[in-house]
Amino acid sequence: EAAERPPLEGGNGVSSTSAIMRREKRRLELANLARDPVLLLTVVLVWVAMFIFILWPLLKLMQAAFVDKGHLSAKALISILSRPNNRLALRNSLLLGGLVALIGTALGYLFAFTYTRTNISAFWRGMIDVACLLPLISPPFTLALAILFALGPRGLITYGILGLKNVNLYGLQGALLAEVLTYFPIAYLTLRGILANVDLSMEDAAFSLGASRLRVFLTVTLPLTIPGIANALLVLFASSLADFASPLILSGARFPVLPTQAYLQITGLYDMKGGAALCFLLLVPSLLIFAIQRQWVGKRSYVTISGKSAASGDGRLVPPWVSGLLLALCLAISVFVFFLYGSILFGSLVRAWGANHTFTLENYRYVFTFGRKAIRDTLIIALTAMPIGGIYGILVGYLVSRKSFPGRSAMEFVSMINYSLPGIIVGIGYLLAFNNPPIALAGTAWILIAAYVFRYSATGIRATVATLHQMDPAIEEASTSLGAGTAVTFRKITVPLIAPAFFAGLEIMFIRAMTAISATIFLISVNWTLITVRILEGATELELGHAAGFSMLVIAIVFITMGILRWIMRRAGMSEYSAVAQIR
Questions:
Q1: CA distance 548 to 150
Q2: 55-95 pLDDT, tens digit each
Q3: What is d(CA 42, CA 26) in angstroms, rounded to the nearest whole number?
Q4: What is 224-280 written as a DSSP string?
Q5: Are 497 and 119 in contact (CB under 8 A)?
């Protein structure tokens, strides 16, 4: 009967059939919602929360930038762009982002290739992992502070070892070094998994045809990893574009960038409209990169995991002399990273950096007395945001992976928006949206908690989606066929299966709540402050010993918390999900 039905007027049979199928799919999705009141209520509540805490702040930011006396106007944007320093900041941001993406991705590939394609021992692999873990779990400007300690005018290397007295680290070179060391581990984690999953039979086939190792790398291995390289380039470019702290400490007026200009526009000139306009300049490339990345990820096909056993694992290994050279390069960079963090520890244990290196615990006494309120506030906010963000992450991940309802794809897209945007945009958007009734959260802990939950729960969402894609839906369908409702099936069947993803969300939520600065610098108040703000104050006011003490405290707290979470997972018999690999 359907085959005999003539096509609709104004189109061919294929397009008419597609339209009919789309309408039928929407009808079935609506019927599914109507039959399941728990699902309907959950979807409505999630959409309400997303509108309030993701879309509404962005709308307020756009309103501040483009609405003047009730009318659309681009005067603020034109005024901002007419200033040479702001145009310079835009060019500097793009230049810095491009350099960080290129150099950071190259370093990440070097580390990933060394890890997967050499016969180095587990000890050296562990060294590489630790060197890459430290920048990911420390406050974003810790490395900037460490670079000042090591390479600044009174640095351990520049002044203490080399005797140089007129070192100028401020500007592009300082910000570039700090951001490359901060973000190249992201490229490493991304590319390591891709290189490890390349089907070895493809390389073995090339070897069997007489190709050299270099030719196999250039014609087989490298092309298969291009999607990962492109993804790493995009992620690192976006991360650099959003970085607020490193340029603030190491660039200053010598090398202005958009995030610091927006911060100074609001805090220095008290120009909220101008700051919103500068944020719009950041918003456009950030959303563009987000869209490109989603499109790339959605369509990419590595075609490297065939399900067949590879002929041999030895073919992928490079010659011993190449292995030694690659390891030496990685260890040189790793030792430098360890040295930088060691200089932070050293700086926290001396009286005055560069002037009096007498051993003292005075900096830690200051941290645990004058910094006690910041420590308490940060732990309260982090420990509150952690379970809320974890639950929200698995809930949204479950909805977009396992349930069919109108707007499911839109829900997944919206859930990632705050994660893809520079933190300074999220912070200013929250300040504009929640500074006045009907939702006046400014000055409370809840505005900080909401900023963390709806920005960093994306890791839990992605981890849940990835986990559920590996599970047969028949497991949950069996529960439903036995009469269990959505809520019961989710609680008794799904939650135990996605527990590792839940703990991944908890881990990242805590790490980010302890280390974030750009998204929350505008949201602190006299009632609630953060350790990262105290570190920034110490760095900008040249109280470097205090800043170093706070930094070491944050790193210690994060390490301890990660250890506790992973101990709980091992005790419960759960496999550990690599949460840190999801940091962006």
A1: 13
A2: 999 999 999 888 887 788 888 888 888 889 889 999 999 99
A3: 18
A4: HTHHHHHHHHHHHHHHHHH--HHHHHHTGGGS--HHHHHHHHHHTT--HHHHHHHHH
A5: no
